[in-house]
Amino acid sequence: MKKIFIFLTAIVFLAGCTSTPKRSNIPTPVASIQAVSEGEYVLTNIFPEANLTLGFDNEGRIFGFSGINRYFGKANIDNGAIVVEPLATTKMAGPQDRMIIEDQYLTILKSAKTIEIKNDSLILTNERGETLIFNKK
């Protein structure tokens, strides 16, 4: 009886020591466009005041707001690699500082080579190491 009590106590103790898995801080490559096609994302690491957005749909389209104009085009995602095809934009003008932000953002976006998810963030990176970090809107 004493051995059974010790055994049950050990089981309860060990079960109490386990923890729920934490979210990994290791980025996970995005497998396909369908994995990110629900909703829009907001850019958080640069130009946060500009409310820049990025979205994808199941048909392979990419779209969003680039500071003054809306943009749209096609993108291919395959196991963490992204290819953004030429983008079209509306042609509204705005303040010079906002036009510069828009140009810089679209330049980095068009040059993105990798796409991954880390916690709740969507991360795009180009060959020069420039990174765009988005959170779900």
Topology readout:
Layout: H1 2-17, E1 28-29, E2 40-43, E3 53-56, E4 61-65, E5 70-78, E6 81-84, E7 88-89, H2 96-110, E8 112-118, E9 121-126, E10 131-136
Antiparallel strand pairs: 1-8, 2-3, 2-10, 3-4, 4-5, 5-6, 5-7, 8-9, 9-10
Describe it.
- This protein is α+β, with helices and mostly antiparallel strands.
- The chain has helices at 2-17, 96-110, and strands spanning 28-29, 40-43, 53-56, 61-65, 70-78, 81-84, 88-89, 112-118, 121-126, 131-136.
- The longest helix has 16 residues, at 2-17.
Summarize the structure.
With 137 residues, the protein is α+β, with helices and mostly antiparallel strands.
CATH architectural category? Beta Barrel
- Principal-axes geometry comes out as globular
Distance between the termini: 59 Å
Q: What is the number of helices?
A: 2
* Series of H and E elements: HEEEEEEEHEEE
Let me know the average pLDDT: 88
Strand content: 35-45%
Structural class: alpha+beta
Assign the CATH class.
Mainly Beta
Number of domains: 1
User: Can you give the helix content as a percent range?
Assistant: 10-25%
Largest sheet: 10 strands, antiparallel
CA radius of gyration is 22 Å
Question: Which stretches are low in confidence, meaning pLDDT under 50 for 5 or more residues running?
Answer: none
Total number of β-strand segments?
Answer: 10
Which topology does CATH recognise? Lipocalin
What keywords describe this structure?
137 residues; Lipocalin; alpha+beta; 36% strand; 10-stranded antiparallel β-sheet
